[in-house]
Amino acid sequence: MRNNASGGVMITASHNPPHYNGFKWTPYWGGPALPEITNDLEARVQGLTIAEVEKHIPFEHGVTAGIIKVEDFHANYFKQLDTLLDLGAIKKAGLKIAADSVNGAARTYLRPVLEKAGARVMGLREERDVLFGGHAPDTDEENLKVLRETVVKNKLNLGLACDGDADRFGIIDSDGTWISPNLVLGLVLEHLVKNRGLKGKFARSVMTSHFADAIARHHGLEVRETAVGFKHIGNLLRTGQYLLGGEESGGLSIMNHVPEKDGILACLLIAEMVAYERKPIKKILADLNKRVGNFVNSRVNLKLDRNLNMDVLVERLRVNPPLNLAGASVWRIDHTDGFKFIMKDGSWLGLRPSGTEPLVRIYAEAATAQKTAALNEAGKKIMSGKF
Fold first, then answer.
1. What architecture (CATH level 2) is domain 74-292?
2. Distance between CA atoms of residues 324 and 330, nearest Å
3. What whole-number distance in Å separates Cα of residue 71 and Cα of residue 214?
4. So what's the pLDDT on residue 357?
5. Which pLDDT does position 356 carry in this prediction?
6. To which H or E segment does residue 325 belong?
7. Which value, to the nearest 10 degrees, does the dihedral of the CA atoms of residues 218, 224, 229, 230 take?
8. Rounded CA gap, 325 and 328, in Å?
9. What integer is the mean pLDDT of 284-288?
């Protein structure tokens, strides 16, 4: 955006293993490309000849000839963060933080910006490793085991992490508890409104928790639900009307920033929140739950049976869907992206085939862990054709 470029290309596997590497096109507005753009690009690629594809020049020659310009993004990115955050609050609180870059792109950004803000930081997995230690560079609970142990052992305030290309975040509380992205979205929204005094709409994807919705309603903010994929949320953020947009897979961005997921920004917002509140995340959550209720959610990746005919199952769900799940009547079925069965008490079950892997994601949310587990089991039965 600063260079007035028509767009940019990133080579990334995101949070997936290295062999998922591919080209990601970012249009001139700095957010994800919409389907009409990616469809057009794919059609153009299909039409290329071998001679056109194999055109290349040595990198050094490209630099010498002025065709390639090498640029360092650190200074401008750090300057942008200064406009979005109260970094002074982090310094004043004297936070002790472990920063895990999972051998990815955040390794020269996350710890340096935290240290610049005055935090005392322990850096983890900051070495360049294109294979990410032999596993997916994700920020899920399993991959952040060392970060959890580091936080607890050293009695730190927080553990913060980003995935391979730094667009997703991972948060560890002072007692080693992994805080799910669903909860992080609500925490960030509450912080921006309560502590920073900011206002605006909130956008989330359809399979994301309703926790932040309850917080938005408490503050009189409008909520917008989108299909899965940050491109839909980013398109709303471009309007300048949305304070926060995010999704359950670990991505968020805020007003006055690029309309794209930013894991480093998310980590800093949580650090800023803890600095303001001067208490662990679990205590902040407990206070919020008293005010807006409990939201227990889960996401299960169910590998598909090779004998399962997904088209037939989807058609059955459309024509004759189950109207009672886990002992509760279905109030409404949302077809925005997959199937979302919503009960009158606010609990819900979501079923959606993955766009990148041979599996179905089962989402469930209720006020208690028992009800959430029951909904999850109901989802598994549906996917086995038992409904």
1. 3-Layer(aba) Sandwich (3.40)
2. 5
3. 43
4. 66
5. 62
6. strand 324-325
7. -70
8. 5
9. 97
**Res 250: pLDDT:** 95
Ramachandran area for residue 224 (φ above 0: left; ψ -120 to 50: alpha; else beta): beta
289: phi then psi, degrees, rounded to nearest 5: -60, -35
Of the two residues 47 and 137, the one the predictor is more confident about is 137
Q: Is 167 exposed, middle or buried (0-12, 13-18, 19+ CB in 10 A)?
A: buried
Closest C-alpha among 7, 120, 8, 16 to residue 354: 16
How far, CA to CA in Å, does 62 sit from each of 3, 59, 72, 221, 375? 19, 5, 17, 50, 57
Structural domain boundaries of the chain? 7-64, 74-292, 296-383
**CA proximity to 78, closest of 125, 111, 42, 44:** 111
Rounded to 10 degrees, the C-alpha dihedral 250/251/255/256 comes to 130
Q: Looking at residue 176, what DSSP letter applies?
A: S
Q: pLDDT for 297-356, tens place per residue?
A: 999 999 877 777 888 888 999 999 999 999 999 999 999 999 999 999 999 999 998 766
Cα angle 131, 133, 139; round to 5: 95
Amino acid at 105: A
Q: Under CATH, which number does the domain 296-383 receive?
A: 3.30.310.50
Six-digit token string for 84: 């979005």
* Mean pLDDT (the chain, rounded): 94
- The SS3 of residue 331 is strand
Q: pTM above 0.85? A: yes
To the nearest 10 degrees (0 to 180), the angle between helices 211-218 and 181-194 is: 10
* Count of all residues that appear for the chain in the document: 387
What is the bridge-based pairing of β-strands 96-100 and 201-205?
A: unpaired
- Predicted pLDDT at 182: 98
Amino acid in position 199: K
**Which tokens go with 132?**
């990410």
